[in-house]
Design goal:
Layout lengths: L9 H6 L2 H21 L12 H4 L10 E4 L10 E5 L10 E5 L7 E7 L17 H20 L8 E6 L3 H5 L5 E7 L15
Antiparallel strand pairs: 1-3, 2-3, 2-4, 4-6, 5-6
């Protein structure tokens, strides 16, 4: 913003004594600069919000329970993050289970088990086709989201993802896929999303 160097009424400026005119001019320029956003140290009528005050950060590893991702069995109500805590083992993923009141990425809101026709002559139940298993589990999770959050999937800010048991877990009898809810924009969640209506 351009600031005028002259006072609007030159006759009035001439009638002021020299030092007073300088003081008045400095006061006017200072007032205009403040009005243009120069800002003072703390007017009571202005509020400043920094991003640090509103940013939710992830929970430190020592405040949750670390479970090897290959051994994690989801349970309804679990809230967790996926982490890679060891730089020397970058492919080793752990599930960090935390209290839901802490910032987290995922919440397990349901479990779904596929209907498998077992062979009565075989003691084992074959692991299902992964693509079919994933699709069926996701569809089941989408169908259950409204009962959980209180809003249809299409209108919710939550996305869903199935967490399938691996073949070793399957052979041990852990056959349920966990239905995970997480924010579509990747924002961390705080608190359970049950009945959150969002």
């Amino acid at each position: 913003m351009r600031i005028a160097a002259r006072l609007p009424d030159r006759r009035r400026a001439r009638s002021l004594p020299g030092p007073t005119a300088v003081v008045a001019l400095v006061a006017l320029v200072g007032a205009l600069a403040a009005a243009c956003g120069g800002g003072g140290d703390g007017g009571d009528d202005t509020t400043t919000t920094t991003e640090e005050e509103t940013t939710v950060t992830e929970v430190p590893l020592d405040r949750g329970q670390q479970i090897d991702a290959a051994l994690y069995v989801p349970a309804i109500g679990d809230c967790f993050d996926r982490r890679y805590p060891d730089p020397e083992r970058p492919l080793r993923e752990v599930i960090l289970v935390v209290p839901c009141r802490e910032p987290h990425t995922y919440e397990v809101f349901d479990l779904w088990t596929p209907e498998i026709e077992s062979d009565p002559e075989s003691p084992t139940v074959p692991y299902p086709d992964v693509e079919t298993f994933t699709t069926d589990a996701r569809n089941a999770c989408v169908a259950q989201l409204e009962d959980f959050v209180g809003r249809p999937y299409e209108l919710s800010v939550l996305e869903v993802e199935p967490l399938l048991p691996n073949p070793d877990e399957w052979d041990l009898g852990n056959r349920a896929a966990g239905c995970l809810a997480f924010h579509r924009d990747g924002d961390l969640l705080t608190g359970t999303q049950r009945d959150a209506d969002l």
